[in-house]
Amino acid sequence: MKREIVAIYPGSFDPVTNGHLDIISRGRSIFDRVVVAVSVNQEKTPLFSLDERVQMLRNATTGWDNVDVDRFEGLLVNYAADRGASVILRGIRAVTDFDYEFQMALMNRRLQGKLETVFLVPAEKYTYLSSSLVKEVASLGGSVEGLVPAEVLQKLQLKLKTG
């Protein structure tokens, strides 16, 4: 019997962007299951609560049967082991992402030798896109339509009282 290959796609997703959804969509065509793991990061002050981020991701991935959305805190390698994952899925937009992600991949490998990291490059139209940039543009009254799911756009506008 073939073993199911589970990939963990971790991040803060504050908020989820269409770039994230592009990586999830392509990841789900490669792996048997993708677990989108929304992290609790004590060093960041998110715009959206953990529950809001999880719900927005669940709504955005409705109908994708092999995608689960979950939350996690602590070491990613421990979470991956708990979920039976053998792969960490990461998106790389630019060389600066690669430098950071490469270090993380090596540390994760050191901590859990059987856990592989797979990097995907987003669709060209999303290579510049980040949650931070979306929040900044939206907070200054700029349009982020087409960069985030419609529900996220509405929630951003309500939270920031713009547009």
What does this protein look like?
The chain is α/β, with parallel strands linked by helices and 163 residues long. It has one domain (6-127): HUPs (Rossmann fold, 3-Layer(aba) Sandwich). Helices cover 42% and strands 18% of the residues. The protein is built from 6 helices and 5 strands, in the order E-H-E-H-E-H-E-H-E-H-H. The protein has helices spanning 18-30, 50-60, 76-83, 95-111, 131-139, 150-160; strands at residues 6-11, 33-39, 67-72, 87-91, 116-120. It has a 5-stranded parallel beta sheet with strand order 3-2-1-4-5, with helices on both faces. The chain is globular. The N and C termini lie far apart (53 Å). The mean pLDDT is 93.
The fourth-level CATH homologous superfamily is HUPs
Instruction: Determine the N-to-C terminus distance.
Output: 53 Å
**Tally of distinct domains:** 1
**What's the total count of β strands?**
5
Kindly estimate the percentage of residues that lie in beta strands according to DSSP.
15-25%
**Average residue-wise pLDDT:** 93
Alpha-beta classification: alpha/beta
Give me the Rg, rounded: 16 Å
Q: Tell me which CATH architecture applies here.
A: 3-Layer(aba) Sandwich
Highest-level CATH class: Alpha Beta
Low-pLDDT regions: none
The percent of residues in helical segments reads 40-55%
The name CATH uses for the topology is: Rossmann fold
* Tally of helical runs: 6
Main β-sheet, spatial strand arrangement: 3-2-1-4-5
